[in-house]
Structure to design on (763 residues):
């Protein structure tokens, strides 16, 4: 028994050690300040995906995982979306392929973006209401606990983006006896029924990958999980919580517009808001704007009054940190 | 050459007369440049070796002129521009030589007066005069001109210059923030790009544009480094730093970058050794407003740094100075589309020219000024305005109010392209510096 525990601990230590070594290697190796954080983020995302795979192979208590993620998101907000979410990693990998082929991306017009920002909430409500529309609700199912872990799988809608590609349980996608999955695959399979499952999942995979090839972070703009994190960010009563926040110093900004253009979620507030707190419910804290801002100390990532990362003159070659 | 009857503005001036006037002004101006450089050397006796290169390039006629001539004979094109809103990267990407042609010569103003009234901004009048007699080698050698229509003067200047050269106008939207403005500006640049490609017979490919952006990144880095050095106790005289900034406008940009880095290395060594160019308690002055252009319009920098008590220029907000190369092109992905967008944005959005306006009253410019004042610990601001430069003159009140609030004295100095008011301005500048000096000591 204790041997098993020890081997598990050893496994996790090696995993954590490799992750740290990888991050350090990137920090030392990348001299280009413009892409250093992006590479670091890529590595954190990959590490997080592996970590989620580990978590899923230890426990199938999805609700527990969700509760932990939500508890953390009180402090980190949509940091999860930018840095940890495995689905976002797939989208970013697709974007990396596009980048390698030097193909341009397309932006949504500002007006469509503004509409989408509101539309997301409708979509979240739709996802919550979906089980009620599809199934007849028995009175005993009304209790909240039953609702969350019962047959409707709202929990898997919200945990959808976290689903690893290889899963330890039975799945609807199988390749050489390996159980494969894709974000939301289990939910789609559940609702489309046995016969249509494979077709429905394939269509979903094709649509999400193709759309993220054209538009950066396509799914993230109305992802229900992301919206539910963002809800916390939206209300002023939560401002006292030491959240991760992006701050802008008005005097240092000349409105050169770089932050607005490089933002993968097309957040315009970072450019339009004059100064102070510029975190919005669309911001995934990927820090691309902070990384690309050419004005020293203009954009800052703050947490509980401490500055974690700030913009610098990226024309200077980086010193080894 | 066009037939004289087709010309819209230009008046007849005989070849002989033009040559006579040119030679006279050229001789006088060579003398003036030598004198200015001597005076600059005198006020900073222990100047670093690397400075000599910039003094040589600053002589305007001669080495660089010959270089461009030779490049032209090899088939390279020269494209001039009158304002910092013109995208240098596109010119470089088409293997052409960019030169800024706004004129700082005093004497040709009298020639310009024959075409436009004296109320017009002297930069415009002087540029017209220079074109009439072919004084500036860079204006003469340029195959085409890019003229952003920032103010009224520049708008009509483009028409007048189009009598003798192809002129490509660029119309910047006066409101920068909206999506439609950016769309319009990008289309303007796209048209310009096609024109540049046609003239140079070089296609601006993604590879070439990337190379050009990287050249300018290096230049911006050197430029920023020099500005950074001016932040603390004065290790370089303001005039010399301004001269370095200005030489980038007609020098080969790669060589300029190297030489500026060399100069910065030397200056950084001096900071460590604490060798100052003038006493560290000298009043720190900032010049804001209309551009001060080498060679002749060096009146104000000369006065400030040769006055008694002496002042030192630690910052400026001129489109011929600290603002010129300060902003880098921020490319997200190296696709043609994104590079082009980045270049377009870099030339429109960070510009704090008073020709732009916004709901908050050109707050960008106010922010730039106050941030610079705080960073460089400026003691006083001299607001330099040409007679006829409406936009800068009208924005004075706004700037003054902001500066009053943060308790920084500002002095409004209006002048013209003339040497007659030097004595008068000297008294006023000295009084201002005296006041700053007493504040510093206090």
């Amino acid at each position: 028994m204790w041997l098993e525990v020890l081997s598990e601990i050893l496994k996790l230590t090696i995993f954590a050690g490799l992750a740290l070594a990888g991050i350090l290697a990137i920090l030392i190796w990348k001299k280009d300040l413009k892409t250093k954080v992006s590479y670091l983020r890529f590595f954190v995302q990959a590490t997080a995906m592996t970590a989620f795979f580990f978590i899923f192979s230890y426990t199938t208590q999805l609700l527990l995982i969700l509760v932990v993620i939500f508890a953390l998101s009180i402090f980190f907000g949509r940091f999860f979306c930018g840095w940890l979410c495995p689905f976002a990693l797939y989208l970013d990998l697709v974007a990396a392929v596009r980048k390698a082929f030097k193909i341009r991306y397309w932006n949504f017009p500002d007006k469509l973006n503004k509409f989408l920002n509101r539309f997301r909430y409708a979509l979240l409500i739709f996802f919550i209401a979906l089980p009620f529309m599809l199934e007849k609700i028995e009175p005993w199912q009304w209790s909240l606990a039953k609702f969350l872990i019962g047959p409707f799988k709202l929990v898997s809608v919200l945990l959808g983006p976290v689903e690893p590609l290889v899963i330890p349980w039975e799945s609807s996608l199988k390749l050489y006896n390996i159980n494969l999955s894709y974000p939301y695959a289990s939910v789609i399979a559940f609702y489309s029924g046995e016969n249509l499952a494979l077709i429905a999942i394939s269509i979903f995979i094709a649509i999400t990958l193709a759309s993220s090839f054209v538009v950066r972070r396509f799914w993230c703009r109305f992802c229900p999980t992301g919206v539910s994190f963002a809800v916390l960010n939206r209300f002023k009563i939560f401002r006292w919580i030491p959240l991760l926040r992006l701050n802008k110093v008005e005097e240092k900004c000349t409105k050169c517009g770089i932050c607005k253009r490089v933002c993968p979620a097309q957040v315009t507030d970072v450019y339009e808001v004059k100064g102070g707190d510029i975190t919005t419910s669309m911001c995934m804290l990927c820090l691309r704007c902070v990384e690309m801002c050419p004005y020293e100390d203009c954009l800052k990532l703050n947490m509980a009054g401490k500055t974690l990362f700030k913009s610098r003159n990226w024309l200077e070659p980086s010193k080894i940190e | 050459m066009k037939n004289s009857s087709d010309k819209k503005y230009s008046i007849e001036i005989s070849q002989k007369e033009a040559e006579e006037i040119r030679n006279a002004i050229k001789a006088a101006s060579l003398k003036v440049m030598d004198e200015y450089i001597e005076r600059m050397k005198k006020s900073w006796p222990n100047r670093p070796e690397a400075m000599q290169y910039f003094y040589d390039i600053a002589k305007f006629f001669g080495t660089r002129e010959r270089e461009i001539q030779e490049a032209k004979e090899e088939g390279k094109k020269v494209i001039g521009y009158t304002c910092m809103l013109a995208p240098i990267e596109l010119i470089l990407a088409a293997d052409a030589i960019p030169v800024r042609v706004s004129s700082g010569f005093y004497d040709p103003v009298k020639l310009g007066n024959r075409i436009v009234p004296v109320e017009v901004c002297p930069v415009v009048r002087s540029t017209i005069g220079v074109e009439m007699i072919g004084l500036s080698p860079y204006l003469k050698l340029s195959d085409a001109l890019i003229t952003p229509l920032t103010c009224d003067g520049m708008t009509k200047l483009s028409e007048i210059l189009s009598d003798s050269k192809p002129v490509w106008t660029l119309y910047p939207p006066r409101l920068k923030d909206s999506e439609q403005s950016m769309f319009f500006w990008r289309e303007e640049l796209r048209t310009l790009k096609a024109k540049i490609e046609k003239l140079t017979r070089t296609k601006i490919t993604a590879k070439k544009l990337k190379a050009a952006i990287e050249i300018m990144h290096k230049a911006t880095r050197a430029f920023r480094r020099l500005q950074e050095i001016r932040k603390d106790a004065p290790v370089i005289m303001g005039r010399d730093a301004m001269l370095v900034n200005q030489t980038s406008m007609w020098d080969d940009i790669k060589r300029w970058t190297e030489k500026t880095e060399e100069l910065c290395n030397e200056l950084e060594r001096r900071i460590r050794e604490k060798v100052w160019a003038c006493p560290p308690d000298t009043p720190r002055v900032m010049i804001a407003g209309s551009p001060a252009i080498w060679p002749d319009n060096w009146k104000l920098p000369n006065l400030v740094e040769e006055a008694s008590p002496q002042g030192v220029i630690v910052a400026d907000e001129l489109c011929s100075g600290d603002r010129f190369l300060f902003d880098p092109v921020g490319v997200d992905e190296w696709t043609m589309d994104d590079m082009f967008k980045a270049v377009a944005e870099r030339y429109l959005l960070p510009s704090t020219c008073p020709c732009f306006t916004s709901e908050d009253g050109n707050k960008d410019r106010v922010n730039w000024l106050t941030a610079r004042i705080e960073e460089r610990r400026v003691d006083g601001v001299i607001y330099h305005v040409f007679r006829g430069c409406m936009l800068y003159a009208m924005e004075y009140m706004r700037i003054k109010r902001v500066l009053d609030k943060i308790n920084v004295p500002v002095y409004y100095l209006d002048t013209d392209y003339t040497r007659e008011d030097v004595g008068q301005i000297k008294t006023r500048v000295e009084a201002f510096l005296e006041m700053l000096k007493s504040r510093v000591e206090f």
